Amino acid sequence: MSSLGQRVLTTVVAVPALFSIIFFLPHYGFLVLALLAMLTAALATMELKELYSKAEGARINFPSWTAALLPFSQWLEIAYFPEIPLLELTLVVMALAIYAAELRSGPKDEYAKTFSRIGGASLLLIYPGLLITFIIRLTALPHASAFLLLFFLLVFGNDVFAFLFGMSLGKTNKGIIKVSPNKSVAGFLGGTLSTIALSVAFCLFYPGVKDLVSIPQALLLGLLTSASANIGDLIESAFKRAAKVKDSGNIIPGRGGLLDSIDSMLASAPVYWLLLVLF
Predict the structure, then answer these.
(1) How far is the C-alpha of 124 from the C-alpha of 98, rounded, in Å?
(2) 11, 57, 75, 257 — which has fewest CB within 10 A?
(3) Long-range Cβ contact pairs of 15-21 (< 8 A, separation 24 or more)
(4) What are the residues whose beta carbons fall under 8 Å from the beta carbon of 268, sequence distance 6 or more?
(5) Whose CA is closest to 6, among 247, 262, 255?
(6) Domain boundaries, the chain
(7) Of the candidates 29, 265, 62, 157, the residue with the CA atom closest to the CA atom of residue 273
(8) 40 with 132: CB under 8 angstroms?
(9) In whole angstroms, what is the distance from residue 60 CA to residue 119 CA?
(10) Cis peptide before 128 (omega within 30 of 0)
(11) 209 vs 200: CA distance, rounded Å
(12) pLDDT confidence of 147, banded at 50, 70, 90?
């Protein structure tokens, strides 16, 4: 099967599965979604850790599985302990553990890579660990299932329509951004306009949501979610260029690594969540 065929098949399988989790398994504060976020954080951190090692030549003192503690603590805080800032406490404890671990690793190379190791581990705390917690935060909003559905619809829609517009109309307007020369103006514009249209249509017709989000707000939600999703995609392109690799991994057929599939979500989730809170 071609790479494009694999990509389409993966999308056709993954998207309905994700939407089914949101709608049919919201029990215990969306526990199944939280478990999926934990697994995603751990695997994506493993990929980024490998990219960092290739780019910087330094091994990071950060077990990949510990990244799952961040979405777990966010879920636990929302579901059972809203009066305790569990996420912030977990983040601080993990950061201190990273810094303390350098006291053991530093002497091995006379502290030549201390800042590199600590900087890399701090990056792993935030990307993807901390950023993915904003998806968990969406579960605390009114009509959480609807807003989760809209978030993934906008992110996937932006990706799909940018790809389609880029393939059909972008052959002569590529190379506008050096970090990802295959991206085209047609792809960016097509993805953005389609995402705005999806946002407006959803907020106009979905029960409950149309009473909470006005048309101007839906326009802004679509625009900024698309913009931040595109930025997330470009950030990960920079990581891969630094490591001199095409994909972050090979875990997902047709798409490469897990980071290749969630980069847009990681950057857009905080923006999307913040806009909804402000609305």
Answers:
(1) 11
(2) 57
(3) 15/152, 15/156, 18/152, 19/149, 19/152
(4) 151, 154, 155, 225, 226, 228, 229, 232
(5) 255
(6) 3-278
(7) 265
(8) yes
(9) 9
(10) yes
(11) 11
(12) very high
176's tokens: 């506008």
pLDDT tens-digit readout, 156-205: 889 888 888 877 776 777 767 778 877 878 888 888 999 999 999 999 88
CB of 217 closer than 8 Å to CB of 279: yes
pLDDT digits (tens, 9 = 90+) for 87-125: 999 999 999 998 888 888 878 888 888 888 888 889 999
d(CA 14, CA 31): 18
pLDDT of residue 1: 47
Burial of 21 (0-12, 13-18, 19+ CB in 10 A): middle
For Cα atoms 249, 253, 259, give the angle at the middle one, nearest 5 degrees.
40
